[in-house]
Amino acid sequence: MKSIASFTMALALCAQLLGCGSSLPTVDVSRPEKSAGLIVIRNVAVLDVDSLEVTSGRDVVISGGKIVGIVQTGKMPAVAGAQIISGEGATLVPGLIDMHGHVNTSTGPSWQPALPDPEANLRAYLYAGVTTVFDPSDASDDAFSRRERVANGELIGPRIYSTGMLITCSGGHPRALIQMLAPSWIAWYLVPRAATAVDTEAEAFAEVNRLADAGADAIKIVIDAIPLDAPRMPRKIAAAIVAQAKFRGLRTVAHIGTTEDAIDAAEAGVALWVHGVYKERIPDDKIAVLAGYGIPVVTTSEVFDRWGRSRQGPIDPTRLETEIVAQQVLDAFAEPPEDFDVGGFNSWLELAANTREVRLDNVRRMHEAGMTILAGSDVQSGVFPGASLHRELAILVDAGFTPAEAIRAATLDPARFLAGGGEPDSGIIQVGKRADLLLVNGDPTLDIAALADIRQVFLQGVPINRTAVAVATP
Fold it and tell me: For residue 402, what is the domain's CATH number?
C-alpha cells in the first residue's frame, strides 16, 4: 500500500502538471514606471566572457534594449536626459542563462503537496540575475503561451526557450517514477501527462510533429534509467526522433546518466547532453570519445547534490535563497515525516549521495579535455529558481573551473548553443547585443560568490526593481 508521503507527492505532481497557482509569499520584481531613453552605467569594470578578462573604468551605454556604446570613463560627453547608474566598485557581466531551468514546478519538500507558481518562479529567476531559461520539460498546456507572454512583456521574467513535454519510452523516466510513487487511483492520470512514451518509429514521428506544430524550441528525450532498473530508450528510437526533429528544423537534447547513455545519444545524433554522466566515473579512454563528438553537456551537479543531502536535515540556505524563498518553505525541509517512503527510488537517492566526488571528477576531466560545459540547475524540490544556478557555478569552480570560466558556462557558451550556430544576440557585453546584464559588487572573477551580490539586473536594457521575499511579504 502506498504511504501517506506517496499520496501527498502524487498530489504535488498533479498540481505541477495542471499548472495551478500558489499563495506563498514571493519576491517582487517590476519594471520602473518610467524608463530613460538612454542609460549609462558609469565607471564600471566589464567582464569579457570570451577573453575572460576584466577591463575597469568603462562607461556602458544602453538604448532601445541594446548596448550601443562601451567607452573609457571620461571620454563620452554628457547626454541630457540620460539615466546615470554608478558602476564604481562593481563588475558588469552578461545576464545569466540557466540551461536546465524549469518554470512550471514546485520547489517545496517532495513529501508535501504544493502548487507550482510559474509566475513566481519567473520573478525568482530574474531577481537572481537569470535573464534566459532553457526549459527542457514543461508538460503544462500553457508552456508555449507563457513563453510568448514573457516575450511580449505581458509577464515579467527571463526569456524562455522550451521543449514542451519530453519523450521517453514505455516504462521510462519520469513515467516509471510516478507509477512507483503515486497511488494507482491517480497514477493513471499523471503518467501520460508527465511525458509521452514512444516505442515505434511511427509513434516517434507523430510526437515530434505534434511538438513542432505546438511551437517547441527543441525536442527532449530521456535515455537515462530512473529508477535504476527502469527501461532505457533504444538507440533506434532515439535516432528516429532526432531525424524527424531535424526534418522539422529542431534539435534534440537527451537526458543521460551513464557513459553508455551518452554514446547512444551521440550516435543517435543529439545536439546536447543533459545532466552529463552522473552515475559512474567515465572511463579514462572514453573521455576522448565523448569529447570527439563535439556535443556540449549541461552538468546539473547541484540537483544531485541536493538529493544526496535530502536526508541530512534542514537546508543551509545561501544569502540568495533567504531572499528568494519563503521562510515557510525553508523550514518545511527540516525533517521528513516518519512514514516518508520512496520505495525503489531509495537506490537512486543512495547513488546521488555516494557519487559527488565521481561527478566532480567527471566534470573536471571533461573540462580538461576541452568539452563545452553549460551551467544548468534543474529546478525542483529544494533546488530554487535562480539561486540554484549560483550554487551550480560554485560547484563548477570546485571542479576546476576558474570563476570566469564558470561565468562563461552560464553566459556566452549557452547563448551560442541557443543561437543554433548563428551569432548570439546576448551572452556577451558587446555593442549591438541585447542588454541583458548583471551588475554585481566586487569582482566575481576573483570570487564566484560575488556574482550573487547583485546591485542591479537589466532585462533588455531596463533596470529591474527587485524586492526580497521577506521585504515583500505583508
Answer: 3.20.20
